[in-house]
Amino acid sequence: MISRDIVVIGGGPAGLAAAHAAYEAGARDILVLERDEQLGGILNQCIHNGFGLHTFHEELTGPEYAGKFIDLVKKDGIDVSLKTMVLDLSEGRVVTAMNEENGMFQIKAGAVILAMGCRERPRGALNIPGFRPAGIYTAGTAQKLVNIDGYLPGKEVVILGSGDIGLIMARRMTLEGAKVKLVAELMPYSGGLKRNIVQCLDDFGIPLLLSHTVSSIEGKKRLEAVEIAEVDEHGKVKPETKQRVTCDTLLLSCGLIPENELSRKAQVEINPVTNGPVVDESLETSREGIFACGNVLHVHDLVDYVTQEAEQAGREAAAYLQRKGRENKAGEKLFTLKPENGIRYTVPSYIHPQEMEGLLTVRFRVGNVYKGKFLSVYLDGERILHQKKRIMAPGEMEQVVLQKKKLQEAGSGEIVIRIEEE
Question: Where residue 220 sits, what CATH number does that domain have?
Answer without folding.
Answer: 3.50.50.60
